[in-house]
Automatic annotation (TrEMBL), chains A, B:
Its cofactor is pyridoxal 5'-phosphate. Homodimer. GO terms for molecular function: pyridoxal phosphate binding; transaminase activity. Keywords: Aminotransferase, Pyridoxal phosphate, Transferase. This is Transcriptional regulator, GntR family. Residues 48-382 form the Aminotransferase class I/classII large domain. It holds the Pfam family Aminotran_1_2. It comes from the Bacteria. The lineage of its organism: Bacteria, Pseudomonadati, Thermodesulfobacteriota, Desulfovibrionia, Desulfovibrionales. CDD domains: AAT_like. Its EC number is 2.6.1.57. Belongs to the class-I pyridoxal-phosphate-dependent aminotransferase family. One of its GO terms (biological process) is alpha-amino acid metabolic process. It comes from Solidesulfovibrio carbinoliphilus subsp. oakridgensis.
Amino acid sequence: MPAFAKRMSQVRRSFIREILKVTADPSIISFAGGLPKPDLFPTGPMADAAARVLAENGPAALQYSVTEGEPALREWIAARYKAKKNLDIDPAHILVTNGSQQSLDLLGKVFLDPGDLVGVELPGYIGAIQAFSIFEPAFAGVPLGPEGPDLDRLTEVVLSRRAKMFYAVPNFQNPSGLTYSLAARRAVAEILRMSDTVFVEDDPYGELRFFGEPLPPVTSFLTQDAYLLGTFSKIAAPGLRLGWVVATPDTLAKLVTAKQASDLHCSTLVQRILIQFLADNDLDAHIATIRAVYGAQRDLMIERIKAEFPAEVTCTEPEGGMFLWVTLPEGCSAFALFDLCIKEKVAFVPGGPFFVDGGGERTLRLNFSNADPERIAEGIARMGKGIKTLLARPGCASGS
Amino acid sequence: MPAFAKRMSQVRRSFIREILKVTADPSIISFAGGLPKPDLFPTGPMADAAARVLAENGPAALQYSVTEGEPALREWIAARYKAKKNLDIDPAHILVTNGSQQSLDLLGKVFLDPGDLVGVELPGYIGAIQAFSIFEPAFAGVPLGPEGPDLDRLTEVVLSRRAKMFYAVPNFQNPSGLTYSLAARRAVAEILRMSDTVFVEDDPYGELRFFGEPLPPVTSFLTQDAYLLGTFSKIAAPGLRLGWVVATPDTLAKLVTAKQASDLHCSTLVQRILIQFLADNDLDAHIATIRAVYGAQRDLMIERIKAEFPAEVTCTEPEGGMFLWVTLPEGCSAFALFDLCIKEKVAFVPGGPFFVDGGGERTLRLNFSNADPERIAEGIARMGKGIKTLLARPGCASGS
């Protein structure tokens, strides 16, 4: 048997995707996944779009296409940046990818040599950590607080340790639900401006704001190379597997070469169905529906947590997105709680794996977008039982 | 501006895709691309399949899915190996990918460390060379003849130089159109059996045989790790971007991890549309139509070449696939011919870039699947003019 490449020894299978296998049992109420609510998917409009695309220009929709992505889709993305964020982005600077995950893979391919330092938030998005791990970097964690990242630590990682890359999710972050304040965005940009660090700003949830004013991306305060990632997974449907990366021309050329080598181009058919869907429907009205439903589910989950969990258990109260972040009292283990909760038929993701530097043992992530209100109320009640059992253990206060 | 990763200095943009931009002018008759004929795409049946999928189970078709690929699609692929080649393949050993190109990327990720030796055919498939280049291997060419690869050279590369990987396209190879004989398949397997070399057998064109008997894959003579690649691009439609790799369980687990890190999974929607299309239609009848059309176009192209090209210009006469391989007299340059032919409004791909060891200056690739018969006849006549101009040059016989 031939040896696997060295890079594979660094990469773990996604812990979350392994948990999702456990939760396939429908009697388990799962807050573990990061799944959108499927009954909100625009199934009928997508069917209409598919029918039109195949009837009006079927052969072209089934043929090979350009690596950069369908021109009409790149133009739509650029126009939306202008309309929603007043950003002037040239469609020629956009590469269409198989969801944000592929944007991360391609940025890793193009920028990361083995041993390069990559700054990530603590807790940080596991999919990004996994994507970058393939390229054998070292990771440095930057703790995330209610206003944004720890600026002293960011200064150390970016300026003293000269990180090659800093990856951030400033809006309703996965897993914490936290959002960078406007002041934090400016401060982060100020640190990055003094560096050669590649800044990767991922924004899968930005359009899912329930209240408060949208904030400009950190990238908008930068003049240097920075990469803005987006996806249709949360505003249209994740099963399309379509996202994008905005890059400067030199880097875009490299990303296109890497994309050619990786899979030639994204599905022509699915890109054209999406373009037709976007042309024929009011996306803002659709997003308003998603926001209303997710916002109500967030409110309910927080309300039930306050009713069912002991007061020493805290949680974030995000302004948008899909996740809450729960912190147990000192010394309690979220993995121990996971085992107790599976017996109660409720699941979540323990927070530890989100910390590249270790730690986070008493934290956990809850998804509020996927489950119905009845299941949210019942699931939080079941979790409350598990937490009370855990906190009654003498060991809980003294370490896991 | 931050530095790009070292790996990117090895990777060239696809020469063919650059040529395709030149040939976007519809007045140019192009034999350059590797495009299937779009009027043969099953547009209506795909529209029916899309309508059914979205009507009957739309939300699931638009949701996230498993990395391995939709179970029904993996089962279909395994059943077809049994029906067509009498191979017993467990669906659990199949990973669905974004076309063969992604299978190559994932195999490179999983197996290739910088400096590893990869054997490729001379001429060899450019997409594979590009995919593997990302992982910084060294390449060793194995010349391809009418019966198969040069076995002495293969022995040297695989056994003496202990290549980490050998990549082959035994059926109607791209770019040459050549096919390994049964004896060559056995001999290649015998050499590989004595080695730890990872054997990657790519078979995009195997179902497009115009005459003669199908031959068993080289992999069927092996008991060790070997990887069989397939694609729906040539038998259904390339715009779906769906292919697969068959692997042993340990390697499949690594490939799944690499796929998770690369893009989570292939589009759920397009996988389900394809499954429905395959369930509701007679694929063999569809492939028979493709074979009949491509076979007739191949016959016509060879007939017109014999009529229009000087006798000292030779070409392969493939039993299937999409390509012919033309060899000019000694000393003539296919790049010089390309310039002459673009003036005549006809395009092809010069052969040089298909040779990892250099050489091939007087060879070129012609695609016969995409153009209509009228354009094939007219394009070969135009090329004949260009060739006669080239051969009349005193320099042609003495080097380019």
